[in-house]
């Protein structure tokens, strides 16, 4: 089966040039001029780019007494519809559960995926079994490990657990990841707010101020430095966290930050909307912030101190959000965005002049493919790479509305936003899943993408290097003990 993408402009993270692209049996086999022979897709006026990679999704995840509403079928259909051709979902082992047993549960769920996927493993508790599970996970191609510093009493790990797990992850050549919020402070603030009668969705934001994120981000960076492991900080929402990441990078530490499209384009005023449902639908952690924080995130993307734009896609229906009526702490945390990440970032990033099309490719696809060690199979337009491609029409517009979305939920946090820049075609390993607005996804087409470990590069740069082989100092004149 041969497909030729004709008359487009190839845009990668570093090059822009006119060329046709030949796709055979799911991979790119030729890039050149006036290619012939096969089914042709007309890319006139369009950019041919690596499909997006969303490294942060929660599909069909058990969480806060319910399950996130989008599963691997609807979630990946939404992804492809918006030009994203790979998702990385989080395996969430229960307390005491073997990591690889949890991996089996995820692997059953993801048989329905319509595009390729990989996993991060969450470390939600600590013990002998987890120590072994980290190695087993890495051997199975799951080489990134997420730690929750929040959700006390559920997913949260303490600093001793964080340090032990980080060291183990470093030893297997893995990547440590954190949800960085100070869970102890969040729990105290939540209890205080509820006691004082602050029960509405706006109090969710008050319970998680930027300081809890800035503190935890800095702590995670320092612990990763002492453990000798590279660190990826998910959903960076504020200047306080960004500042810690910027400083670490400037010191030569291997630290990456991931802002979400929601935090880049929506702000805290959403929580003060008079309609309870409107506000509750936007409850997520970390919460939306004010304009100053948004400006900081955009500056980070523009300067390169922040590397990846994701979604944390974790969708709940209005009915599920209503579990928290009368108590904001029971509103399931999470918002959707899989279908809208690429068009929203193009509209607010490229069309405004903040990002070049090449930078757009970098932050939506290539950077994360490199960080997660699946480049150039993914994130590239190169001969031999998977034909995960998006033919992007920069002139195409639409107004986002829940009525026409792929996600299963009954609303969209970007409702009413007009975007300019949308896929004309989306290809997943050669299969044309989105064809000029028509959805032709195939349930079960998606395959697991295993990833190789790599050496813990952080070691070479940190001060910890000097302390790796501590030895006692020979001393004379030791004072006598006692009086
Ligand atoms: N934050 C959310 O809003 N939802 C899922 C998990 C998380 O950390
Ligand atoms: Zn999180
Ligand atoms: Zn998440
Ligand atoms: Zn908008």
TrEMBL record:
Keyword entries, A-Z: Hydrolase, Metal-binding
Cofactor: Zn(2+)
Range of residues in the leader sequence: none
Record-level Gene Ontology MF annotations: dihydropyrimidinase activity
Keyword Metal-binding found: yes
SUPFAM superfamilies: Composite domain of metallo-dependent hydrolases (SSF51338), Metallo-dependent hydrolases (SSF51556)
Amidohydrolase-related domain sequence ranges: 47-419
Domain of life: Bacteria
Keyword Hydrolase found: yes
A Pfam family the protein falls into: Amidohydro_1
EC numbers on record: 3.5.2.2
Family, per entry: Belongs to the metallo-dependent hydrolases superfamily. Hydantoinase/dihydropyrimidinase family.
Protein name according to UniProt: Dihydropyrimidinase
Organism per entry: Rhodobacter calidifons
GN (gene name): hydA
């Amino acid at each position: 089966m041969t497909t030729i993408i004709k008359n487009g402009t190839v845009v990668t993270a570093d090059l822009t040039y006119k060329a046709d692209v030949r796709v055979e049996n799911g991979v790119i086999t030729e890039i050149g001029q006036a290619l012939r022979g096969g089914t042709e897709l007309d890319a006139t006026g369009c950019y041919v780019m690596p499909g997006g990679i969303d490294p942060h999704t929660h599909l069909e995840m058990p969480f806060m007494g319910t399950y996130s509403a989008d599963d691997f079928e609807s979630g990946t259909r939404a992804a492809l519809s918006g030009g994203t051709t790979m998702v990385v979902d989080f395996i969430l082992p229960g307390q005491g559960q073997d990591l690889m047993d949890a991996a089996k549960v995820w692997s059953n769920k993801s048989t329905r995926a319509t595009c390729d996927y990989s996993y991060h493993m969450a470390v939600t508790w600590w013990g002998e079994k987890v120590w072994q599970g980290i190695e087993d996970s890495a051997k199975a191609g799951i080489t990134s490990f997420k730690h929750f510093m929040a959700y006390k009493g559920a997913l949260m790990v303490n600093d001793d657990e964080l340090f032990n797990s980080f060291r183990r992850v470093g030893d297997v050549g893995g990547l440590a990841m954190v949800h960085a919020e100070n869970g102890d402070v969040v729990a105290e603030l939540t209890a205080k707010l509820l006691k004082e009668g602050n029960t509405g969705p706006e109090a969710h934001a008050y319970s998680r101020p930027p300081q809890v994120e800035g503190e935890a981000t800095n702590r995670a960076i320092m612990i990763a430095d002492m453990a000798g492991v590279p660190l990826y900080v998910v959903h960076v929402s504020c200047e306080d966290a960004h500042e810690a990441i910027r400083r670490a990078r400037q010191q030569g530490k291997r630290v990456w930050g991931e802002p979400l499209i929601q935090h880049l384009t929506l702000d805290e005023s959403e929580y003060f909307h008079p309609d309870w449902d409107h506000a509750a639908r936007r409850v997520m952690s970390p919460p939306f912030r004010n304009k100053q924080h948004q400006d900081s995130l955009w500056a980070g993307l523009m300067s390169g101190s922040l590397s990846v734009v994701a979604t944390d896609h974790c969708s709940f229906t209005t009915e599920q959000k209503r579990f928290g009526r009368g108590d904001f702490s029971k509103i399931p945390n999470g918002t959707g965005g899989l279908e809208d990440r690429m068009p929203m970032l193009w509209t607010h990033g490229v069309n405004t002049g903040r990002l070049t099309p090449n930078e757009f490719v970098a932050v939506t696809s290539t950077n994360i493919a490199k960080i997660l060690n699946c480049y150039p199979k993914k994130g590239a337009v190169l001969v031999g790479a998977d034909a995960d491609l998006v033919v992007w029409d920069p002139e195409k517009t639409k107004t986002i509305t829940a009525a026409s979305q792929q996600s299963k939920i009954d609303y969209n946090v970007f409702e009413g936003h007009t975007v300019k820049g949308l896929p004309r075609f989306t290809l997943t390993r050669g299969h044309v899943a989105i064809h000029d607005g028509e959805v032709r996804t195939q349930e079960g087409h998606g395959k697991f993408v295993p990833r190789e470990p790599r050496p813990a590069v952080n070691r070479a740069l940190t001060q910890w290097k000097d302390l790796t082989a501590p030895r006692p100092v020979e001393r004379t004149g030791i004072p006598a003990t006692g009086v």
